[in-house]
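lol forgot to send this yesterday, sorry. struct tokens for the thing we talked abt
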């Protein structure tokens, strides 16, 4: 049994000859809800594991089943690809998959994890359409993507602010021409505007 500072997380200590371990993961910032399936057996009940203890939990599972091939998956989302890289470094064949409504009814973390492990079982069994696997970017590509997205967000915010400013001026009878942003036009415009606007 693995003990963390918050709670005890169990890893079954039964030593059977397992060939394939599949882990469905519903990932959040502070915790991972997991469902484990050994070979073709019925998936085990869901467990909630704190994110800071999760890697140790996976290592303990690997120690328990040293000859097994490990497969796992989680849905792409705001938590990024750090866990994916860690799992791959640990020898787990992890897949990041496109988010879908696998449950059909109200989503819960436990249902999502179970449906993910069931779909992963089909994928490992040869059904290539069971899950849509996402191409994981390199850390450099991820950094570049973050910069591009941040720049695009700032450009949208700037356009929104300009439109709000133009609208405010129009409400007070000031009509702007197309060259209002150039330095000479802006200087004369600022002099004519009420001080509370600038």
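and heres what i got for the seq, position by position
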């Amino acid at each position: 049994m693995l003990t963390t500072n918050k709670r005890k997380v169990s890893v079954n200590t039964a030593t059977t000859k397992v060939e394939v371990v599949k882990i469905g993961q519903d990932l959040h910032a502070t915790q991972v809800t997991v469902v484990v399936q050994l070979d073709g057996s019925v998936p085990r009940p869901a467990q909630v594991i704190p994110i800071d203890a999760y890697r140790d939990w996976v290592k303990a599972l690997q120690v328990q089943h040293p000859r097994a091939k490990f497969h796992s998956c989680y849905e792409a989302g705001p938590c990024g690809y750090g866990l994916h890289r860690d799992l791959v470094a640990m020898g787990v064949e992890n897949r990041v998959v496109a988010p879908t409504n696998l449950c059909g009814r109200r989503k819960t973390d436990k249902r999502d994890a179970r449906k993910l492990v069931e779909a992963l079982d089909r994928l490992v069994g040869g059904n290539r359409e069971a899950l849509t696997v996402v191409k994981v970017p390199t850390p450099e590509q991820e950094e570049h993507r973050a910069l591009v997205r941040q720049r695009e967000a700032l450009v949208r915010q700037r356009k929104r602010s300009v439109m709000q400013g133009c609208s405010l001026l129009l409400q007070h009878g000031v009509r702007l021409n197309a060259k209002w942003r150039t330095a000479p036009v802006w200087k004369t415009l600022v002099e004519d505007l009420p001080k509370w606007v600038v």
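The chain has a mean pLDDT of 88. anyway ping me if u want another try
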